[in-house]
Amino acid sequence: MTAAPVSPSVSALPQWESTPDDLPRAVREIKQAIRARIEASGRTVEEAFAVVARRVTERVAEIRTARERGEDVWPVIAYADIADGTVTREQLAKLQRRGCLVVRGHFPREQALGWDSGIVDYVEGNGFFESYRGPGDDFFGSVGSKPEIYPIYWSPAQMEARQSERMATVQSFLNSQWKHESDGITWFDPDRDSLYPDRIRRRPPGADSNGLGAHCDPGTLDLWMTEGYQQAFRHLFDGSVEEYDPWDAAHRTSGPQYPGTTMCSAFRTFQGWTALSDMAHDQGVLHTVPIPEAMAYLMLRPLLDDVAEDDMCGVTTNQVFPVSEKWHPLLLEALSGIPDVQAGDSVWWHCDMIHSVAPVQDQQGWGNVMYVPAAPWCERNERYATEVREAFVSGSSPSDFPEEHYERSWPDRFTPAQLNDTGRRGLGLI
Ligand SMILES: [Fe+2]
Fold first, then answer.
1. How far is the CA of 372 from the centre of ligand 1 (A)?
2. Under a CB-based contact definition with an 8 Å cutoff, are residues 372 and 272 in contact?
3. Cα of 215 to ligand 1 centre, how many Å?
4. Rounded to 5 degrees, what are φ and ψ at 347?
5. Which residues pair with 216 in a beta bridge?
6. 303-334: pLDDT as tens digits
7. What distance in angstroms lies between residue 187's CA and the mean position of ligand 1's atoms?
8. What pLDDT was estimated at residue 133?
9. How far, in Å, from the CA of 297 to the mean position of ligand 1?
């Protein structure tokens, strides 16, 4: 992949390719610089923000109306239609508009239930619960002290799902929703995934959980401060907000990310999980603000003058990007939960999308998921694949996650000999 051209308008912004030493000062500096750039377009920051707010307000109203009519806010597409190429134009339009999706019957229910019990055998057979040392990070750790998130990466079940043809089919369908070529550059290959290893959640019947507050995952202050993201969000930072396209991958697939507890070294078009149990919509499930353009709102909101000069509406390094009633009440009005899902269905949301997990008391049934995103092959993911390969071979926790390394001595983890061509390609072995 060739070097990306630098837009002259954005190159004028100050940049920090690693976390600034003096955060409040850097925040003040970048806010002033972005405001000046926007104003150079002949528009005030308030005017640029108003354009975004109008667009988002329309979407919020549309979602409220759909909800009042009892319609599904979340798009739902059957796996068979994706595999057969029979997804309708209306379904595609809804996916673009909402930025999230449930794939029905992505895997046969029995296969997903088999994976779930395979994971239980894998962790129990290796004494995981006896050796569990508590949450290794302070993010999912807030969910509860019992291990609901298993820091397990290399079970046969997970690897079978990651390298399956069905997963590859859905990943390339989702990747293709993005614009992946522009200015003569191929930003990523939609038909090759990079096999991003992530964890498992198993939440038992009767569980009480506070859930997770609304947040988004693509980064923190780096979204405003690194050259890559300044290029990616160039239309937000130079006043041409109408041209901002949340589906444009330009400049998103090579740059660095500031380290932090929720950092993801990979570029993901969609985050996702596959259900390993049936889950009802009111049992502490995933919610999103199903408006891809909400990112523009999040990026410009801190520039308004009711926010302190050294504050980015609460966004700071080493903490999740918060979405709050204080700064973003409009967005939170659109928060919408997934419909009921069955084991074998999968759930996907655009990588910038605001999401949360609802609280639950005395949960009915299991709440089990395997996190598998769509992370297409690109410069950034090729770089991370080197670390993934090492972690895979040694059974270690991947470098994006706490160094827990439970599986290093587990004899029945997935082996290199069990990789198929999709798995080998995903790890960069062929
Ligand atoms: Fe998240």
1. 13
2. yes
3. 6
4. -130, 135
5. 321
6. 999 999 999 999 999 999 999 999 999 999 99
7. 24
8. 85
9. 18
β-sheet bridge partners, residue 150: 200
- What sign does the CA torsion over 289, 295, 299, 301 have? negative
| Contact (CB, 8 A) for 366 and 201 | no
Dist. CA 52 → ligand 1 center (Å): 23
| pLDDT single digits (tens) 33-92 | 999 999 999 999 999 999 999 999 999 999 999 999 999 999 999 999 999 999 999 999
Phi, psi of 199 (to 5 degrees): -100, -165
Question: How far away, in angstroms, is 23 Cα from ligand 1 center?
Answer: 23
Residues 6+ apart with CB under 8 A from 217: 262, 264, 271, 320, 321, 351, 355
Amino acid occupying residue 105 = G
Rounded to a whole number of angstroms, the CA Rg of the chain reads 21
Give the residue from 367, 383, 364 showing the smallest Cα distance to 428.
383
What SS3 class is residue 141?
helix
Nearest residue to 155 via CA among 194, 132, 125, 192 = 125
Note the pLDDT tens digit of each residue in 92-114: 999 999 999 999 999 999 999 99
Rounded-to-5 percentages of helix, strand, coil across the chain? 40, 15, 45
CA of 217 to the centre of ligand 1 (A): 5
Q: How far is the CA of 373 from the centre of ligand 1 (A)?
A: 12
272: phi > 0 → left, psi -120 to 50 → alpha, else beta; which? beta
Q: Cα separation of 258 and 286, whole Å?
A: 26
